[in-house]
Amino acid sequence: MLDNRLLFNLASSGYDFITNQGIWRDHVREMATLLSGPAPRRIIDLGCGPGISAFVLAELFPEAEVVGIDISESMIARSNERHSRHFAHLSNLHFLRTDIYELPFAPRSFDLATGHSFLYLLPDQKAALSAIEEILTASGQLILLEPNAQGSLRSATWNAPYHRFPTDPLASTRFALSMILWRVVSGRRGRMTPATLRELFTAAGFGNIHIATTLNGLGLHVSGRLFPSATQGDQSCSCA
Ligand SMILES: C[S@@+](CC[C@H](N)C(=O)[O-])C[C@H]1O[C@@H](n2cnc3c(N)ncnc32)[C@H](O)[C@@H]1O
User: Fold this and answer.
1) What is the enclosing helix (H) or strand (E) of 175?
2) Closest CA to 23 of 144, 170, 153
3) Structural domain harbouring 34
4) pLDDT for 3-16, tens place per residue?
């Protein structure tokens, strides 16, 4: 199997093409609604790819510093290029090529970590969550979108909202393509269940875990927060 660095270096232009559109950005915004508590001051976007998720976060939280990280040189080059061409006004954002397992940040230096389609790709998810826990402040929050093992393309297609198609057929087509490819790649790399996500989050010290289905059942949103002393919290699930 190709390692992630090589895979996403090779796939960066195609990936950029299908995800640089309004519906994808709307889903990043939807993920941000899971934020609880005070506005974050420092945010890390894990596996930021061509930067779409990080640009949305930097716009949503103009008072915060946002750092997008990715293992792929090509993805970071695209993020930097898009930043200087189209988002130069976002001075609160920068990108860094680094591996989740070698994060060069001080412990307890971010209060929000996000990953839009990231954890499922990693070979050692427990170690990745420990690395994230280490850089988050004592009450820091982690929000992820992951592929749902219980979803199906057939039912997602059946229940899809088609209202955007007449006004934005290109974005709708690109979005449909991104979902098909996500299903194919996640079928090979491994999808998540609510139970797996809860177990991983709890083992890494996150409490207040909330899991909900999204993307017509194809995705799972998961959010958890660290607490100074507790590893348990209110655990809720609104999964299909
Ligand atoms: C599916 S893409 C998601 C991109 C972006 N978040 C978005 O919403 O479009 C996953 C990204 O994770 C990155 N990645 C994979 N393994 C990584 C690792 N070990 N450390 C950092 N980034 C990694 C890949 O290079 C890829 O760009």
Assistant:
1) helix 169-189
2) 170
3) 4-238
4) 999 999 999 998 88
Give me the pLDDT at residue 1, please. 57
Residue 71 has which token pair? 């293992």
- Which protein residue's CA is at the shortest distance from atom 9 of ligand 1? 49
Asked if pLDDT for residue 233 goes beyond 70, the answer is no
Is the model's pTM score more than 0.85? yes
Residue 160 sits in a domain of what CATH number?
A: 3.40.50.150
**Residue 18: CB atoms within 10 Å:** 19
- Which amino acid, 174? R
Instruction: Write out residues with Cβ below 6 Å of ligand 1.
Output: 4, 8, 19, 47-49, 52-53, 69-72, 75, 99-100, 116-118, 121-122
- CA of residue 78 to ligand 1 center, whole Å: 13
Q: In angstroms, what is the span from residue 133 Cα to ligand 1's centroid?
A: 18
Q: Would you state the structure tokens that stand for residue 112, as one six-digit string?
A: 């929000």
d(CA 154, CA 83): 37
Exposure pattern of 56-79 as b/e (b: 16+ CB <10 Å)?
bbbbbbeebbbbbbbbbebbbebb
State in Å: Cα 17 to ligand 1 middle: 15
CB atoms within 10 A of CB 34: 17
Q: 47 CA distance to ligand 1 centroid (A)? A: 3
Number of domains in the chain: 1
pLDDT tens digits for 202-227? 999 999 999 999 888 889 999 999 98
Nearest CA to ligand 1 atom 14: 47
